[in-house]
Amino acid sequence: MSRKKYVVELSHDERDHLKTVISKGKAAARTTLKARILLKADQGRFGEGWTDDRICQALETNESMVARVRRQLVEEGVVAVLARKKRETPPIQPILRRGSPGAADRARLLHPATGARSLEHPPAGRQGGGVEDRRPRPFQHGRTSA
Fold it and tell me: pLDDT per position in the chain (146 positions), as tens?
């Protein structure tokens, strides 16, 4: 049996924390899976010390997941394993928004046939070309559509 590069040895507090995460049942499935992997892989005094193959079969996961969890625990700690990674880049802003800076330029690029009037200037005979004009209106008696 080969020697593991990342050996999991949990303290008593870390084991209790992982057991609490699993027993509460409120955590995401991936978080619970990672907690189970760590408890099974623990080579410490009170750990189960399972092999990666046995963990994969018991928890129905793959070896790369077990290896990633081991590595992350050794390099970053239990909290980092259970927490979701923060996003490095901000989410992309919506492409078209009426009145936003450069909206007319973006509209010209996306809809070259209609040009900038698609957002800034509604078509003739219309008061607005946006989504808000297509909202369902409440029913009114005596009103007919032409």
Answer: 456 789 999 999 999 999 999 999 899 999 999 999 999 999 988 889 999 999 999 999 999 999 999 999 999 999 999 998 888 887 876 555 666 666 666 666 666 665 445 455 666 666 654 555 555 666 667 666 55
- Alpha carbons 121 and 93: distance in angstroms, whole number: 22
CA 130 to chain CA mean position, Å? 30
- How far apart are alpha carbons 36 and 54 in whole angstroms? 12
Domain map (residue ranges) of the chain: 12-82, 94-123
Angle at 107 between CA 105 and CA 109, to 5 degrees: 70
Q: Which of 35, 29, 74 is nearest to 55 (CA)?
A: 35
Residues 6+ apart with CB under 8 A from 129: 118, 119, 122, 123
Pairwise CA distance, residues 108 & 118, whole Å: 8
Alpha-carbon 33 to chain mean position: 16
User: Sign of dihedral through CA atoms 23, 25, 30, 31?
Assistant: negative
**pTM value?**
0.60
